[in-house]
Amino acid sequence: MPTTWLITGCSTGLGRALAEAVLARGHQVVVTARDVSTVEDLARSHPDTALAVALDVTDDAQVAAAVAAAEARFGGVDVLVNNAGYGYRSAVEEGEDTDVRRLFETHVFGSVRTVKAVLPGMRARRSGTVVNLSSIGARVCPEGSGYYAAVKAAVEALTLSLRKEVAPLGITAMVVEPGGFRTDFAGRSLTQSKHPIDDYADTAGRRRKEHDTVHGTQQGDPAKAAAALIQAVESDAPPYLLLLGSDASDSFRTALDALRTEADQWESLSRSTDF
User: Fold this and answer.
1) How many helices (H) and strands (E) does the chain have?
2) 137 vs 128, 134, 174, 249, CA distance in Å?
3) 88, 147, 148, 200: which is the annotated catalytic residue?
4) 227-234 long-range CB contacts below 8 Å, 24 or more apart?
5) Is the CB of residue 244 less than 8 Å from the CB of residue 225?
6) What are the 10-residue block averages of pLDDT along the chain, 275 residues in total?
7) Given 152, 193, 200, 251, which residue is catalytic?
8) Is the pTM above the cut of 0.90?
9) Which of 11, 57, 261 is nearest to 151 (CA)?
10) Which residue in 230, 259, 226, 260 sits closest to 245, CA to CA?
């Protein structure tokens, strides 16, 4: 039976690959982008199952309108995928306040807006899935990506609480942590602080765009990521956390082992604070 997906950020990258894959499987998709002209081709090629909608997730009115359009055309949203976003690289000290607030507004509050917009319909139907895109960066927190890691960590914490809240209502929520995929994330979509500080040249500075040699060589295949995400969503028991890419899987386990080792080293002091 066809389901209806609302996917944010479908103009390029994983969002577009996912929209194409879901449509190819015969499902209905509300394909969105800030510039709707970048996704209208998907609606033209799938006139019965795709609806192109302009959506800036920082705009309350546009979020409400996108969900209303999904309900009017397809009857509701079965799967929400919060994919819209962009990268930001900066040493913590270098981060400009305006840029940092915009990053949080897009990734954190943008996701909250769309989730709150679709939940009334999902609760009424006692079914639905919320998928929030995170990043392995939330786990490994590289130098120069503190702010990006922070927004993704916030999204993950919110999703875990949400998952517990909506599970009794027949709704599930999950996080996806991709590693490096061959998309535009590290190219046009990557922003950075405007005024680097020399003292951070050997830490955060190494991740600036002008020093990045990764773009275009990432090992992750967006089409395979889309297929894996769909498989997880359609499984009988979707996971809370889905890692995508062997690099994400390896990095996750390395970070987890490091945390466990440090917790063990300081366990006596940790326990010494009890009455």
Assistant:
1) 10, 9
2) 27, 8, 17, 12
3) 148
4) 227/21, 229/18, 229/81, 229/131, 229/176, 230/18, 230/21, 230/22, 230/25, 232/174, 232/176, 233/79, 233/129, 233/131, 233/174
5) yes
6) 94 94 98 97 97 98 98 98 95 97 98 98 98 96 96 98 98 95 65 95 89 66 94 97 95 97 98 97
7) 152
8) yes
9) 57
10) 226
Backbone angles phi, psi at 99, to 5 degrees: -65, -40
The Cα-based distances of 140 to 48, 118, 169 in angstroms read: 42, 31, 33
Amino acid 236 reads D
Residue 220: strand, helix, or coil: strand
Q: Are 5 and 30 in contact (CB under 8 A)?
A: yes
Domains in the chain: boundaries: 4-247
- Residue 134 is among the residues annotated as catalytic for this protein: yes
Tokens of 238: 């979707």
- Number of other CB atoms surrounding residue 104 within 10 Å: 14
CATH number, domain 4-247, options 3.40.50.720, 3.40.50.11690, 3.40.190.10, 3.30.2350.10: 3.40.50.720
Q: Which of 11, 111, 134, 193 is catalytic?
A: 134
Distance (Å, whole) CA 252 – CA 234:
24
Amino acid identity, residue 14?
L
What are all long-range contacts of 33-40, with beta carbons under 8 Å and residues at least 24 apart? Answer: 33/9, 35/11, 38/10, 38/11, 38/12, 39/10, 39/11
What the block records as the tokens of 31 is 């394909």
| Whether 148 is catalytic | yes
Say whether 224 is catalytic: no
